[in-house]
Amino acid sequence: MHSISQVEGTFVDVEGRYVIVVGRFNHHVVDSLVEGAVDSLMRHGVDAGAIDIVHVPGAWEIPLAIKRVLEVARPDAVIALGAVIRGGTPHFEHVAGECNSALSRLQLEFDTPVANGVLTVNSIEQAIERAGTKAGNKGVEAAMAAMEMVSLLRCFGDDEASQESAS
């Protein structure tokens, strides 16, 4: 009988370079997400010198900054943090939707984890709940996802090295 193989990331093999890209808009909420993400990375053994934080105006600008970070800095993972809070106009849907779509495209294009910690909520109360009160801290969750993916991808080896040896 053939056994089923399972592969998953851990939170042990997570060393590497992490870049946190932060939208300043709604900073009173986002600052807590950043604190949670940095704390989580460091608690799992990521050196403070291997964590960079890039600030942009808001969620709309996050994907462009991440694209440049991926092109230039080539980190092991990027963590996107921000808060888009619904208002009385369709602006919310456009910003939230485009930001989410772009983050997904970037991680596939650059073969690098891009953890999405951009809150998309209906009210400031919901944002506060997700920034460290009732609903946990989504910055911590995004950092955990980034670390797990870094570890998981290491299970498959370095893609560039394997392509070079195949040539």
TrEMBL record:
InterPro entries, per database record: LS, LS/RS, LS/RS_sf
Annotated SUPFAM superfamilies: Lumazine synthase (SSF52121)
Residues at the active site: 91
Catalyzed chemical reaction(s): (2S)-2-hydroxy-3-oxobutyl phosphate + 5-amino-6-(D-ribitylamino)uracil = 6,7-dimethyl-8-(1-D-ribityl)lumazine + phosphate + 2 H2O + H(+)
Protein's pathway: Cofactor biosynthesis; riboflavin biosynthesis; riboflavin from 2-hydroxy-3-oxobutyl phosphate and 5-amino-6-(D-ribitylamino)uracil: step 1/2
GO molecular function, one term: 6,7-dimethyl-8-ribityllumazine synthase activity
The keyword Transferase appears for this protein: yes
Binding site for (2S)-2-hydroxy-3-oxobutyl phosphate: 88-89, 130
EC number: 2.5.1.78
Any one GO BP annotation for this protein: riboflavin biosynthetic process
UniProt: 5-amino-6-(D-ribitylamino)uracil binding residues: 25, 59-61, 83-85, 116
Pfam families: DMRL_synthase
Keywords: Riboflavin biosynthesis, Transferase
Functional description taken from the UniProt entry: Catalyzes the formation of 6,7-dimethyl-8-ribityllumazine by condensation of 5-amino-6-(D-ribitylamino)uracil with 3,4-dihydroxy-2-butanone 4-phosphate. This is the penultimate step in the biosynthesis of riboflavin.
PANTHER family to which the protein is assigned, alphabetical: 6,7-DIMETHYL-8-RIBITYLLUMAZINE SYNTHASE (PTHR21058:SF0), 6,7-DIMETHYL-8-RIBITYLLUMAZINE SYNTHASE DMRL SYNTHASE LUMAZINE SYNTHASE (PTHR21058)
Quaternary structure, from the entry: Forms an icosahedral capsid composed of 60 subunits, arranged as a dodecamer of pentamers.
Family listed: Belongs to the DMRL synthase family.
NCBIfam families, per the entry: lumazine-synth, PRK00061.1-4
Record HAMAP family: Lumazine_synth
Protein name as annotated: 6,7-dimethyl-8-ribityllumazine synthase
Native source species: Halomonas huangheensis
